[in-house]
Amino acid sequence: MQLTFEQIRHNDEVNTYIRQADASLESMGFTEHSFAHVGRCAHEAASILETLGYPERTIELARIAGYLHDIGNVVNRVDHAQSGAIMAFRILDKLGMEPAETAAVITAIGNHDEDTACPVNELAAALILADKSDVRRTRVRSKETIAFDIHDRVNYAVEQSSLSVDREARVLTLRLTIDSSICPILEYFEIFMNRMLLCRRAAAFFGLRFGIVINGQVMM
Q: Taking the model in full, what pTM does it have?
């Protein structure tokens, strides 16, 4: 059965896990990991593969992986990629997805967290890029936290963020507009350098160079 992204997006079980996972992270002081985040990851992962000319079915699987990738946070933040992959296997198997497609999706989910991630297939590489580039003001839950929480401060300082792929130049670029009166640009790299290095590995999976442009200046 060719399970669709829309079926997953409207699945009550899936959405219950996403809501509860985000509620748990909120109680621990993490930024937003709810429908805005997983929806954006689904869109960006699919967009990368679409731009690179992958088949429509592969693109659809990237959407599904992006939407499901953080459900493991309902169990615990620690090893959430692995627990999320196991949860996704149960869901997708129950809904009748073919084993080869299920394997591709859960491989991506199990390989998206920077502590254990590896761009082992095209879905994993696209998901890594989509997930690690989602830095934006609207992920901050309270403006009051930006004075003492560096993660909230950096996210709040990002006024605009976008990913783009130049197939001819073989470059994938993350462009950010950062209000440096809220945080110095150095703070972005202080907390996200490992994520950016992982993005470089993910881009290399596609034979692309990963670049970062902040406030119009090439940084990487």
A: 0.97
